[in-house]
TrEMBL record:
Gene Ontology molecular function: agmatine deiminase activity; protein-arginine deiminase activity
PANTHER family: AGMATINE DEIMINASE-RELATED
GO BP term (any one): putrescine biosynthetic process
Listed name of the protein: Agmatine/peptidylarginine deiminase
Keywords: Hydrolase
InterPro entries with a match to the protein in the record: Peptidyl-Arg-deiminase_porph (IPR007466)
Keyword Transmembrane set for record: no
Length: 355
């Protein structure tokens, strides 16, 4: 179907019809620590299905059987789960999954949706991504999204690289997008983002990064829109930490931003976890990489003393929602966290009618 022209990218705190993930297996980069990371996926699935349906992409029948066995053992409500068998290179569905725009009701009273399918290049060609780049089309062909339109845009963009307030403002980082499109100016990229995401304006951050992050500073590791004109962001108060100056400059940038009506945003700085190392390599333990679902926020926990304070602050920024901590230390071994492995689906899309 042809989508209407009143499309927009919903905020993550708006009603959802489900969450999309892909199960790790021995053919992905998780192979070396597969059993360990599966514990996080089980905890994530258990948390999501308490609040809404879950679509799990599996590579083949064996991966399907393994995932279902682990979920049954954890007493996950499988009636709220749909498995879809498709090939994939890895499991970071925030970046290879659909960026779903939502419009008003159509003539048959169903909301209008567009699965916006930007080109996925493996974070600027760092990793092979041919199968991941075809994932959205595969899900569409599998009938997961019913009546939604599918629009391919031949321009590299990952879902983790953008934040939407649901009201026409996109927040992103220059460090990431200039790496993907070094030949384009900020003005040119802003125009492409506004057009592709049906947005009214684009806000840019020039500062902010995390060691161990190979996304070139995705915004969802740094700063997140919150209801009531809020922004939750990863801060660093430790002056001896190598991130301190950069994140302080990012905090100043955020303080200088204004809403579409000219007001300052309400800022919610997150605490800083102690350095987590893996064979001497620092891992990117960001508390900003949380996932909002219906009635709750799923918050990364890293086994750090700052975990509970981070959860409290995120709860303050998202009042009225249950806060559920999910153990995410296994995820950061592969340079991402909770938000990175998930993609929410807007309310009304109803993936395959599950739930």
């Amino acid at each position: 179907m042809t989508p209407s022209t009143n499309l927009r990218l919903p905020a993550e705190w708006e009603p959802q019809s489900g969450v999309l993930i892909a199960w790790p297996h021995a053919g992905t980069d998780w192979a070396e620590r597969l059993a360990e990371v599966e514990t996080t996926y089980v905890a994530l699935a258990a948390a999501v299905t308490r609040f809404e349906p879950l679509v799990i992409v599996v590579a083949d029948a064996a991966v399907h059987a393994q995932a279902e066995t682990l979920l049954r053992e954890a007493r996950v409500e499988l009636a709220r789960v749909r498995f879809v068998e498709l090939p994939y290179d890895d499991t970071w569905l925030r970046d290879s999954g659909p960026i779903t725009l939502k419009g008003g009701d159509t003539t048959d009273s169903r909301p209008d949706f567009q699965l916006t399918d930007f080109r996925f290049t493996g974070w600027g060609g760092k990793f092979g991504a041919e199968q991941d780049d075809a994932l959205v089309a595969g899900l569409v062909d599998a009938g997961v999204f019913g009546h939604a339109a599918h629009k391919r845009i031949d321009w590299a963009l990952e879902g983790g690289g953008i934040e939407s307030d649901g009201a026409g403002t996109i927040l992103t980082t220059w460090r990431c997008l200039v790496q993907r499109h070094p030949e384009q100016s900020r003005k040119e990229m802003s125009a492409i983002l506004r057009d592709g995401l049906h947005a009214e304006r684009v806000l840019w951050l020039d500062y902010g990064y995390l060691e161990g992050d190979d996304t070139d500073a995705h915004i969802d590791t740094l700063a997140r829109f919150a209801p009531g004109e809020g922004i939750v962001f990863q801060a660093c108060a430790n002056a001896s930490d190598p991130h301190h100056d950069e994140l302080q400059r990012m905090a100043a940038e955020l303080a200088a931003l204004r809403t579409a009506d000219g007001r300052p945003y309400q800022l919610h700085p997150l605490p800083w976890a102690q350095p987590i190392l893996d064979n001497g390599r620092r891992l990117a333990a960001s508390y900003a990489n949380y996932l909002i679902v219906n009635g709750a926020v799923l918050v990364p926990a890293y086994g750090d003393t700052a975990d509970d304070e981070a959860a409290r602050i995120i709860g303050t920024a998202h009042p009225g929602r249950e806060i559920v901590q999910v153990p995410c230390r296994p995820l950061i071994w592969q340079n991402g966290s909770l938000h990175c492995i998930t993609m929410q689906l807007p309310g009304g899309l109803n993936p395959a009618g599950i739930g």
